[in-house]
Amino acid sequence: MTTHELWQAALGELELSLSKANYTTWFRNTFISAFDEGRIVVSVPNTFTKAWFEKKYHVAILKALQNVAKDGGVREVHYKVELKPTVPQDIGTPIGIPSAATPVAAASGADEEASETTKDFSLNPRYTFENFIVGKTNELAHAAALAVTEKPGRYNPLFVYGASGLGKTHLLQAIGHKMIAMNPRTKVLYVTCERFTNEFIHAVRNGRGKEFKDTYRNLDLLLVDDFQFISGKESTQEEFFHTFNALHQCNKQIILSSDRPPKAIPDIEQRLVSRCEWGMMVDVSAPELETRVAILESKCKEKHYEIPRDMLSLVASSVQSNVRELEGTLNKIIAYHQFKNIKPSMESIRELVSTMNSASGSKKNLTPKDLLDTVARYYDIPLPDLLGKCREKRLSFPRQIIMYLMREELNSSYPAIGKIIGGRDHTTAIHAFTKIKNDLKEDERLRHDLNLIRQRLYSAA
Ligand code: ADP
Ligand code: MG
């Protein structure tokens, strides 16, 4: 076995236990540069990766290498920063470097809470690193965001993805704040993808295309939120592509957020997908209970309102998959107690939480049809194919997901599930349910997918 083969085999093992984003982010451009008397040196492209390998992945890497090196000759692993000696990356159509920076008028940008934003940069003052609680499911995104502020242009672009309400906007804006704090002259622009699109269309219509280009191409930091909305917008994609290239070539930092990885955005040009994947991709997923409690504690502090930890824990267990909703619940609880002029107690909170849960009633409204449509759309497979007879894995897997979700979310009986899924036997439904349930224990990627699907189920219902 050559060192190349050894590393490929180890990567194969590692891939199984990591989310796609983590895997792509950390293991691209790594290789074994030395293997000598049981001592392996893994070369990595930058110090950030080196630190993470040492801190987070060392045990997994060592284990994977020991597993695949059958003679058991691997004793220790070290990491070294070194670039792979390969042909240079395609850097795309060369385009003119913007002329000497012209001062950009105070950057504009919008956010759902425009009234709360600071005038100059349209950044929400609450969305800072100080206010961002780090847990297992967002620590990578957080670390990457910080790394970007330390060395803009190095991990370019940074692409942050994950379901709605999990702190993507918060992180993007935190980066903006920090860069401005470090150098007030940094030209930062935060825009939603929709705003970018509208401004572009407006500019073209009014013959101000050049102004638009000048504004965007002279930035030091461009933050584009909800990038998935670029889907299907051809001319905007084209313009963004050139903006991207102009900034990237001057080593100006670009940060994108999206509710899904670039590849999963429908109707998007391949060249844009590959640009998005150039730098670092990181995902955020729903925080664990402990982190949710910490988030609630921090929000209480922000609002100068005190609720004991055990009560917050109760709130945190009632809202699991969306921090925005978690915060909304907390706000209602505070408002209720302030209005009644009483102190929160276990009883009052338990009661509020349970009425809010039943009032939202989302689970009740969900129909099998919603579920089928949502899963079909998520995997981008026509529904008749999903319900059909073909057993290709491409189809059978989403089919099993549907059966699993029908059981979990709708409490459907196995025979009923079988019937809806193209008239299958109830044993098929049982098998599908247990299989997905077991897969979930191991497969972080699958958990992430299911989270996203659930979010869509209930945001559509
Ligand atoms: P997204 O852009 O992913 O939909 P947001 O960034 O808008 O989510 O976050 C929704 C709300 O949840 C915001 O008020 C944000 O401050 C809060 N939030 C999300 N994650 C965290 C976190 N890790 N720490 C503190 N607040 C968070
Ligand atoms: Mg957002």
Summarize the structure.
With 461 residues, this protein is an alpha/beta fold. The chain contains 20 helices and 8 strands. Helix 6 runs antiparallel to helix 7, helix 15 runs antiparallel to helix 17 and helix 15 crosses helix 20.
Bound molecules: adenosine-5'-diphosphate, magnesium ion
What does the radius of gyration come to? 24 Å
Q: Helices and strands: which structural class?
A: alpha/beta
The number of E-state strands comes to 8
Summed over residues and divided by their number, the pLDDT gives a mean of 86
Q: What would the principal axes of the Cα set say about the shape?
A: globular
Q: What fraction of residues sit in β-strands?
A: 5-15%
What is the subunit organization of this protein?
Answer: single chain
User: Which strand order spans the largest sheet, edge to edge or round the barrel?
Assistant: 5-6-7-4-8
